[in-house]
């Protein structure tokens, strides 16, 4: 069963806070839920499906459904890390198409910044029962040095340079200057990035995303319901997911699961990367953007360095405007999970509601994509293609 | 992690590997049916899903597939993926080596005597 044309994103909301020491995690979830429902012109009583990821406190979706006092007939807490919320849109469309729900609410929220959990350089402390744990944790694998190994191998095989990666941060900063909520609003140069302190070779501090509190929410509805709402109709055109792992020790670090999910999503949508006017791509690190753009087919594998250079990702300047809210590199990265904000900015672009300085003219087809887990070990990917009707 | 033996309560599947490492032997898990080696070691072959897997003595040699020097640490250290001569790639640390001399595809060999939480770890040094 295809999800093409089976569901619309009717409501979006991004929490304005980047640090929220005076709010609980559940409270933040409820705030973003109410924000997205108000944006759609719906109420919490209309919600009959609920979706959340690994940031939800409690057993799967249970505690938050209880906290918000929802009355749902469908719930899904699929967790592939930061890309979960892109995946949830696809799952919500599937549930709507199957008649399991009509109005699906997806929330993400948390406050790692207030709780002092900046985890990029801290050796991972996942569940010790995980089969991979004894082989990785003692080697002091962190998020940043594992992603760094992907970038290092890409540089070795394709000649990708730090200056090319830096262009991704430069483009994000050009967009963030127009976002009053963004954590980092100063425009930076390639020199600023490559001269910032090295964290884990070859990734510098400015190659890394920010740590922030906050969150966001989405409301996905049956197209018949979307038609009655006083909002632009943003239709799900295609979606796909994939998992890439170590394959028993025979893996290739230079590509991501986007190479598997991307083609499937384009096939379902019946379009090609050339048709896409805007992309939101998960930018945990500059390199994450580079490999995903290659894997999705926006350029040839190995040519990403040249593709992202010279402002090609800057709205109004280059061929493929990306992350026009400033992304995780400059705007926010709530709960270390960038998938939610990727969908939100994609919907803003399709509605024509992005900041005028970064709005892509005639934006009718756009893509949101992310990877979650760890690019250097095992990760999931979700691709979502949306269309303004 | 305080004591590696506490961690091993969860992983009896690979206890023999860690014990052998203490005795100076580096074991690799092979499949007796498809004859392929894999990493990390499992009772069931991840390639053909046969249960006929067995330990074989590894050469302890390979090439650096990729690496990264963590500069944001009290003492910088190097995480790496090493492609063993037997085939599979494992996650490790590069030790006893000049950090600035490390390169992708550099030859490496097992470096003994590096413990974490009381357990000898399979770490490597530049050849
Ligand atoms: Zn086998």
H and E order of chain B: HHEEEEEEEEEE
- Which range best describes the helical content of chain A: under 10%, 10-25%, 25-40%, 40-55%, 55-70% or over 70%? 25-40%
Mean pLDDT of chain B: 96
What is the helix tally of chain B?
Answer: 2
Largest sheet of chain A: 9 strands, mixed
By helix and strand content of chain A, what is the structural category?
A: alpha/beta
Quaternary arrangement of the chains shown? heterodimer
What would you say this structure looks like, in words?
Chain A has 389 residues and is of the alpha/beta class. Chain A has a single domain (8-116, 208-388), classed as Thiolase/Chalcone synthase (Peroxisomal Thiolase, Chain A, domain 1, 3-Layer(aba) Sandwich), CATH 3.40.47. Chain A is built from 13 helices and eleven strands. Chain A has helices spanning 25-40, 62-67, 84-97, 133-136, 143-158, 162-176, 190-194, 223-228, 258-269, 286-296, 304-308, 327-330, 339-351; strands at residues 8-14, 49-52, 74-76, 103-110, 198-200, 203-204, 214-221, 234-244, 278-281, 365-373, 379-388. In chain A, the strands form two sheets. A nine-stranded mixed β-sheet of chain A has the order 3-2-4-7-1-8-11-10-9, with helices on both faces. Chain B is mainly beta. Chain B has a single domain (5-126), classed as OB fold (Dihydrolipoamide Acetyltransferase, E2P), CATH 2.40.50.840. In chain B, 10% of the residues lie in helices and 39% in strands. In chain B, strands 6-5-4-7-10 form a five-stranded antiparallel β-sheet, with no helix packed on it. Chain B has a three-stranded antiparallel β-sheet with strand order 2-1-3. A two-stranded antiparallel ribbon of chain B has the order 8-9. The longest helix of chain B has 8 residues, at 15-22. The termini of chain B are far apart. Chain A binds chain B through residues 121, 128-129, 131-142, 144-146, 148-150, 152-153, 156, 197-203, 246-251, 253, 377, and chain B through 1, 4, 7-8, 10-11, 13-14, 18, 36-40, 42, 45-47, 65-73, 77, 79-81, 87-93, 104-105, 116-117, 119, 121. Residues 31, 33-34, 36, 45, 47-48, 50 of chain B line the site of zinc ion.
């Amino acid at each position: 069963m295809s999800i093409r044309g089976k569901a619309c994103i009717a409501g979006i909301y991004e929490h304005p806070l980047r640090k929220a020491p005076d709010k609980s995690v559940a409270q933040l979830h409820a705030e973003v839920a109410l924000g997205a429902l108000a944006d759609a012109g719906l109420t919490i009583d209309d919600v009959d499906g609920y979706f959340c990821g690994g940031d939800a406190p409690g057993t799967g979706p249970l505690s938050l459904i209880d906290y918000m006092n929802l009355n749902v007939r469908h719930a899904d807490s699929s967790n592939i890390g930061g890309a979960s919320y892109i995946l949830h849109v696809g799952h919500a469309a599937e549930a709507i198409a199957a008649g399991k729900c009509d109005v699906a609410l997806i929330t993400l929220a948390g406050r790692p910044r207030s709780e002092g959990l900046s985890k990029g350089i801290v050796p991972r402390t996942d569940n010790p029962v995980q089969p991979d744990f004894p082989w990785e944790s003692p080697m002091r694998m962190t998020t940043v040095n594992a992603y760094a190994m992907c970038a290092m191998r890409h540089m070795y095989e394709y000649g990708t340079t730090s200056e090319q990666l830096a262009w991704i941060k430069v483009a994000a900063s050009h967009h963030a200057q127009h976002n009053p909520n963004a954590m980092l609003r100063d425009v930076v140069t390639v020199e600023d990035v490559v001269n910032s302190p090295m964290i884990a070779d070859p990734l510098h501090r400015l190659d890394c995303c920010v740590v922030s509190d906050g969150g966001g929410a989405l409301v996905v509805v049956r197209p018949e319901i979307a038609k009655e709402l006083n909002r632009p109709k943003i239709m799900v055109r295609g979606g796909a997911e994939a998992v890439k792992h170590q394959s028993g020790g025979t893996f290739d670090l230079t590509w991501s699961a986007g190479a598997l999910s991307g083609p499937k999503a384009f096939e379902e949508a019946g379009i090609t990367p050339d048709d896409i006017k805007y992309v939101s791509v998960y930018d945990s690190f500059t390199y994450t953007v580079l490999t995903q753009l290659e894997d999705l087919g926006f350029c040839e594998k190995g040519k990403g360095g040249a593709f992202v250079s010279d402002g090609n990702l800057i709205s109004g300047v280059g061929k493929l405007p990306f992350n026009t809210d400033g992304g995780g590199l400059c705007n926010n990265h709530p709960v270390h999970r960038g998938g939610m904000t990727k969908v939100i900015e994609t919907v803003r672009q399709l509605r024509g509601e992005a900041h005028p300085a970064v709005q892509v003219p005639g934006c009718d087809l756009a893509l949101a994509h992310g990877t979650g887990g760890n690019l250097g070990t095992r990760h999931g990917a979700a691709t979502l293609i949306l269309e303004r009707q | 992690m305080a004591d590696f033996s506490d961690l091993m309560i969860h992983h009896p599947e690979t206890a023999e590997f860690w014990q052998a490492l203490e005795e100076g032997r580096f074991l690799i898990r092979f499949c007796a049916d498809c004859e392929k080696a894999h990493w990390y070691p499992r009772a069931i072959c991840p390639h053909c899903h046969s249960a006929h897997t067995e330990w074989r003595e590894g050469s302890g040699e390979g090439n650096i597939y990729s690496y990264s020097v963590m500069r944001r640490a009290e003492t910088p250290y190097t995480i790496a993926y090493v492609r063993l001569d037997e085939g599979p790639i494992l996650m490790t640390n590069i030790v006893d080596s000049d950090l600035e001399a490390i390169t992708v595809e550099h030859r490496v060999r097992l470096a003994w005597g590096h413990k974490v939480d009381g357990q000898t770890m399979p770490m490597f040094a530049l050849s």
